[in-house]
Structure formats: C-alpha cells, structure tokens
Automatic annotation (TrEMBL), chain A:
Protein's name in the database: Peptide ABC transporter permease
GO biological process: peptide transport; protein transport; transmembrane transport
Main location: membrane
Organism of provenance: Marinibacterium profundimaris
Annotated transmembrane regions: 13-32, 44-69, 123-146, 158-179, 191-208, 220-238, 258-278, 321-342, 362-385
All copies of domain ABC transmembrane type-1, residue ranges: 123-385
SUPFAM superfamilies in the record: MetI-like
Topology relative to the membrane: Multi-pass membrane protein
Annotated localization: Cell membrane
Species lineage: Bacteria, Pseudomonadati, Pseudomonadota, Alphaproteobacteria, Rhodobacterales
InterPro entries listed in its UniProt record: BP-dependent_transpt_permease (IPR050366), MetI-like (IPR000515), MetI-like_sf (IPR035906)
UniProt entry keywords in alphabetical sequence: Cell membrane, Membrane, Transmembrane, Transmembrane helix, Transport
UniProtKB/TrEMBL annotation, chain B:
Membrane topology: Multi-pass membrane protein
Native source organism of the sequence: Marinibacterium profundimaris
Identification of the protein by name: Peptide ABC transporter permease
Presence of the UniProt keyword Zinc-finger in the record: no
Chain ranges passing through the membrane: 12-30, 134-153, 165-188, 214-231, 269-294, 314-340
Cellular component GO terms held in the UniProt record: plasma membrane
InterPro entries tied to this protein: MetI-like, MetI-like_sf
Organism lineage: Bacteria, Pseudomonadati, Pseudomonadota, Alphaproteobacteria, Rhodobacterales
PANTHER family reported in the protein's UniProt record: INNER MEMBRANE ABC TRANSPORTER, OLIGOPEPTIDE TRANSPORT SYSTEM PERMEASE PROTEIN APPB
Family of the protein in this entry: Belongs to the binding-protein-dependent transport system permease family.
Keywords from the named record: Cell membrane, Membrane, Transmembrane, Transmembrane helix, Transport
Gene3D superfamilies given in the database record: MetI-like
Length: 395, 347
C-alpha cells in the first residue's frame, strides 16, 4: 500500500475522532438551546472565548472517555509492530493482519508503537487524574482556609505558616523527594494520602451536620447516606495489599501504586494555593451584612462558613478551579517529563514528550502530537476560565 | 518599617530551618541510606553489614542529632578506631589533629558529593554561576517584553491590540517549558524542518554563550513566565486608566502618550513588581526543565543528577540554596511592595 499524503492523514484523523465530533455537536446544540436555564454555564455561550475554551476542553474530555472505551484509537497503545520503528506519519503497516487498521496515522515511535493511539490514550490519563486531584486540593484548601480566614488569630498564623512552608519548596524538588521508589517503599506518600484524603470526609460531614443540626433524625439519615460510601471509598483507597497500610479486609478497588503517589503529590502541591485564595475570600466576605445577620440569628460558625461565606465566594473559586486543572495538567506533564511516578511505558503526554525529545533532531513526529495535545487542553482551560470570569463579573 | 523587616527575617529563618529539616529527613530515610551504603560499599552487603557501615559512617544516630551535626549546631560525631580517631569533622579537615568540633552548613562545610567526587560547596557555587547567567538573560528578555505587552494591552482595554496581546499572553501561560522547548527545537534546529537557525543543545554555551546556542533556552523559560506578568500588568494598567486623576489629566488636555508615560505607568507598575519577584521561584522550575532539555549543566541539571543518583549531601546543598533563593525573593517582594506603595508605607 502507498503511504498516505498529508491531506489524507488529516482527513483520516478527523474521521477517527467522529464520536467526539458527534458528542461535541450534541453538547453544544443542547447547551445553546437551553442556555437561559443553565445559570453561569449557560451564560458561557454568550462569550466567544468561553465557547472556544469549552470546545477545546470538552474535545479532550470526550476523547479521553471514548479512548477508555477503546474507540478512536487505531492500535493498542503498547502494541509494537516490527518494521514501524520511527516511521513517518501515514506509513502503511508492512503486513497488516485482518481487521487491523492499515496505517500508523502519526507514525511510529522509537519502540514501533502508534503515536496517534498513544496520544489519544494519554488524554484518558489526564482526564482521570487532573480534575479529581484538583477537586481534592480544593476540599483540603476550603476545609482549612475557611476557618483560617473566619477565625483569624493564632489558627490563621499556624496554618498560613504551614502553607507558606509548602509553597517555598520548588515543585520539582518536592516531586523528586516524594516520588522516588525509595520514599514510596517507606510509605510516606501513603501516610500523606491518609491525611489528605480524610479532608473530603470532614468537609461533607461538617457541611451536612451544620445544616441539619436542629433536626437530628434527618441529620443522621443524610449523614449516613453520604458518609458511609465515602468512608468505604476512603478505606479502600488508602488500603493496599502488601504495603505499610494493609488492615482493611473489604478492599473494593486498588489504585495502581504509581498513580496514587502522583495523585497525592499533585494534591499536596496545589492545596496551599487554594488555601490562600479561600482564606483571602473568607476574610473579605466575613465583614458583609448577611454574615452579621447570620451571627445575630445565632447560627454556628461552621454554618456561616459553609452555607453563607462559601456560596458567595463561588465565582472566583470556579474560575480558579478551571485554571488549576490546567496547572495540574502541566504538573502531571512535568512528572512524566522527568520519568517520575507513572510507569515508563505509560502513554501519558509528559512521558511521551520525554521519550520523543531524545531523537528530536532526526524524528519530529513522536514528540510533537502529545506536546500540542497538552498545549491545546491547557489553553482551552485558560480560555474557559477567562470566559467564566468575564461572564460572572457581568452580573 | 524596621520591626516589619526584622519580623519577616525571623519568620524566614524559621521557615528555612523547618524546610531544611524536612528535606534532611526525606533524604536520610532508611531506604536511601541503605542504597547509599550499597553503592559506597558493595551490592552484596547483608543487612548487618549495611547497619555496621551506616554506624561507622555516622548515619546511625537519631535524626535530630544528625540534622544538628549537618547544620553545624551540634559537634560532629567522633569514634575511636584502630588507626586513631575518626569523625565527621576529622574527615573534612586536612589535618586530623586540628579538626574543629563543629562542622556543618553554618561553618561552610557542605559535605562531599558521591556522584561528582568533589566538595558540594564548590559544585553548587560553580553550577549556580552558570544558572545565574541563564537567569540574568531570562530576566533581561522577560521583564521588559512582559511589561511592554501588559502596558500596551491595558492602555486601551477592549481594543484590537488588547485582544491580540491578551490572546498571546494566554497562549504563553498555557505552554509549559517542556512543550515550548520541544516545539522550538523541532522548528528551529532539526534537519527535518530545515531552518537550523539555532543549536538544539546549550552545552557549548557553558563556556561561550552566543546568540546561536543560548537564545532558545532563554526564550523557552521567559515565554512561560511572560504571559503571567503581562496579564497582571494589563489588569493593573487597565485599573489605573479608569482612575479619577487620569480622567482629570485627559480633561486638562494632556496628550495620550503623556498620560500613559507620566501619570499611569508609575502606579501601574507597583503590582507587577511583586509578581515579578514571586515569579523567580517559578523560574527555578523552568530552569530545571530547560537545563535538562537543552543539556545545560547548571543548577537545575545538578538537582536532577543529585536526586536521580541518591547523592544525599549534594541534594541537601541544592535544596538549601533553592529554598533560600525562594525565601529571599519573597522577602524582597514583601519589603519592596511596602516600600513602593505609599498607601501601605504611611499607614
């Protein structure tokens, strides 16, 4: 078979992404149709920048989800086909098996794997880790930042000192200290997981308890509904067979070792910044009249923090959430770039860029697709944050 | 002002102590020490051999004591052997009989690198010098262009210039160094594209930095920080341009360039100053990535080597320096902000 021309490659790649295009069109059509009923999200469709940002972000989110279901990809991300090492984009397979996709659309890498499929699979790793890690960082930051800002005083001094301590670490040094096999063997990251992952439990517990405190029966029911699954998830998350923490018999799922460490260190790096933002917002909002009104009504401090201050701080927090997912994506790439945490054959973008850069002066095609993928996702998140900021300032 | 600076310096010292202690603990965990013993001794050591080796070399005591010795606040360990006295300070000193009791960071003894087979102090100083050159050019390129972009964009909010420059700064903030560096190397140095304007490695720039071998690393680091500073400058400039005194100046008939240069700029540049200083720690990250990518053997490259090869004393030295750099920039930015901003300075 003949190698594909550039135009054919482009068309075939667009064709491979067909499920993503369909999903995007459906999402945009539905959102624009109902945009008046969708609050801040609906207003996003009034700004061009916001729409471009959302489009880019959702493109990669859908790509990740479909890639997890083994759609879009043309070959297995770890399949090595002989004769395809470092071949340029559009090279046909030398002797294709029946039913196999007959080309490497973006060429082969140094180990004769399909660059296109690896890039698509890499999206799934980012889409899995980045938003969730950011969410955890926000839970930690909010749970500690609200009381620091609301109470002030000694509590604030101690917590701010700790946050500044972590912020003064150069991120890469921290990664090198936390994500080496020797440190993982001592269980330090796992103990950190024990501490960090308890914050969502505390957050939801306090959130519900402060709201329904006066109705004990309802309080108990809601608490049980929310907390029991969370506690189970927490225990299965921190418990891993054959490591330092191995006591819980009902281990529902296991997070692969590398991923947990990466997750913990990313949360650890992000949480202090969120803490500072939330603390600042809380200090600002606690002087408002409605907080004084709630205090006069005799509401408890946690009710005021979580049900009066937090909802009113949502605008800046949502914007920062988008930016922070982008930053987390960059951090994940950095980890991959230095070969830390994730296994070396993993198709995540940082590791692929790192592998591709070694032969960059001769072969461009293995390194560039993941680089542009990462660039477009982070750009999309930044544009989305910009659009959200503009729209939330408008009212 | 005096007591403010004093308090800030006190907090800074406390932070530095805490951070170095954390780094010390993390690098001196038992698996690291075991690995060290096996690389220094031999790989077939039994567990007892490892324990004995560690005891003989002063790695045995409690963590706090070892930290004190390393810092120079506690006397170094000593031990009687068959051929006389052995000890931390005796190994460091040229003449064993005149060895001081204290030898640590405070006394200027930084330890010995197992990878480079040199004194850590010397390595750190040399590498820091190389990175200093890199950082200098980064700042020379980044700060003026970022301020220019920010001021031009914020001067007339919502104009075409503003839209174009803001898009540019968003794109640069979305491009981490390892992405832009790879793209630059691909476009400007590879034989495939054929431009070959620059060199893909900066190894030769260590002796002889020229435009050809040094511009790409400098550009790569500056671009990522540039967008952020530019956006902050833009926001600050846009805010100043809506202020009352600018309107007064306009009504008086002052020309637009005059308003921008004489009235707006001075107030608009206070906020970016802090941002620029706080950007230095981020540059440190960029430096590690870019030095690895372009094979420029400076401070960041040393960090990767030390961390990757379990070179405990070198890693500690590198950490101390980077932590101090970060804390110093924070201190300067705090003091500078107070000094520059009359509203805070007077109250």
């Amino acid at each position: 078979m003949e190698p594909l021309s550039t135009l054919q490659i482009a068309l075939r790649i667009l064709g491979q992404f067909l499920p993503v295009w369909i999903a995007l069109v459906v999402l945009f059509a539905a959102s624009i149709r109902f945009k008046r009923n969708l609050g801040l999200y609906g207003k996003l469709f009034d700004s061009v920048i916001g729409m471009i940002g959302l489009g880019l972000v959702m493109f990669w989110v859908f790509t990740g989800i479909f890639a997890a279901m083994d759609m879009i990809i043309t070959h297995g991300p770890l399949d090595q086909l002989s004769g395809m090492k470092n071949e340029p984009p559009g090279t046909p397979l030398p002797d294709p098996e029946d039913g196999a996709y007959p080309w490497y659309l973006l060429g082969g890498d140094n180990l004769a794997r399909d660059v296109f499929s690896r890039m698509v699979k890499g999206a799934w790793i980012v889409v899995q880790i980045a938003p969730l890690a950011t969410l955890f960082a926000f839970m930690v930051g909010i749970t500690l930042g609200l009381p620091a800002g609301y109470y002030g005083g000694r509590l604030d001094t101690v917590l701010s000192f700790l946050a500044n301590l972590i912020l003064a670490f150069p991120v890469i040094l921290l990664f090198y200290l936390l994500v080496t096999p020797e440190i993982v063997a001592t269980g330090v990251p796992q103990y950190m997981a024990v501490v960090l992952f308890i914050f969502p439990l505390v957050f939801f517990g306090v959130l519900i308890n402060s709201r329904y405190r006066s109705q004990p029966r309802r309080n108990m029911t809601v608490l049980a509904i929310v907390l029991i699954p969370l506690v189970l998830a927490y225990l299965s998350l921190i418990n891993a067979q054959g490591t330092r923490i191995d006591f819980w018999p009902l281990d529902l799922f296991d997070v692969p070792g590398g991923i947990l460490v990466v997750f913990v260190s990313v949360v650890f790096v992000n949480a202090p910044t969120v803490f500072r933002i939330v603390r600042g917002l809380a200090m600002d909002i606690k002087t408002r009249d409605y907080v004084a009104a709630a205090q006069t009504r005799g509401e408890g401090p946690w009710y005021i923090m979580l049900w009066e201050i937090l909802p009113n701080a949502r605008g800046p927090l949502i914007v920062d959430f988008c930016l922070r997912i982008g930053y987390t994506t960059i951090l994940l790439g950095t980890l991959g770039f230095f070969g830390l945490g994730l296994p070396p054959e993993s198709p995540d973008w940082g590791s692929t860029i790192n592998e591709g850069r070694k032969l960059l002066s001769i072969y461009l095609h293995p390194a560039l697709p993941p680089a542009f993928a990462l660039l477009s996702l982070v750009l999309g998140l930044n544009l989305l944050a910009d659009g959200l900021r503009e729209e939330s300032l408008r009212d | 002002m005096g007591s403010f600076i004093l308090r800030r310096v006190g907090v800074m010292l406390l932070t530095a102590l805490c951070l170095t202690f954390i780094v010390f603990c993390l690098t001196n965990l038992y698996p690291n020490l075991e690995k060290l013993a096996k690389t220094q001794g031999n790989f077939r050591m039994s567990d007892e051999d490892v324990a004995r080796w560690l005891d003989n070399n002063g790695y045995g005591g409690p963590m706090l004591v070892k930290y004190g010795e390393w810092l120079g606040a506690l006397p170094g360990w000593t031990r009687e052997t068959e051929d006389g006295m052995d000890g931390r300070c005796i190994r460091a000193a040229e003449d064993p009989t005149e060895a001081p009791r204290f030898c640590g960071i405070i006394q200027g003894y930084w330890g010995y690198s197992t990878v480079f087979k040199e004194e850590v102090g010397g390595i750190v100083a040399k590498r820091l010098g190389l990175t200093g050159i890199l950082m200098f050019w980064v700042l020379v390129l980044m700060v003026p262009s970022a301020l220019l972009i920010g001021v031009l964009a914020g001067m007339r909010e919502g104009s075409v210039t503003d839209r174009t420059l803001s898009t540019f700064s968003i794109i640069t903030t979305a491009t981490p160094e390892y992405v832009s560096g790879v793209i630059f190397i691909a476009v400007f140095t590879s034989s495939t594209v054929g431009l070959r304007w620059f060199k893909g490695t900066a190894t030769s720039a260590m002796e002889n930095p020229t435009f050809e071998n040094f511009f790409l690393p400098v550009l790569t680091i500056s671009l990522y920080g540039m967008g952020y500073i530019a956006r902050m400058t833009r926001a600050s400039m846009a805010e100043v341009m809506t202020a009352q005194y600018i309107r007064t100046a306009r009504l008086k008939g002052v020309s637009f360039p005059n308003i921008v240069v004489k009235h707006a700029l001075r107030n608009a540049l206070i906020a970016p100053f802090t941002v620029i200083m706080l950007q230095v720690p981020w540059l440190l990250n960029g430096v590690v990535i870019v030095e690895t990518l372009f094979n420029y053997k400076g401070f960041g490259w040393t960090l990767v080597q030390a961390a990757g090869n379990n070179d405990i004393e070198l890693l500690l030295g590198v950490s101390v320096v980077s932590v101090i750099v970060v804390l110093l920039t924070q201190l300067i930015s705090d003091i500078g902000y107070v000094y520059l901003n009359p509203r805070i300075r007077i109250s």
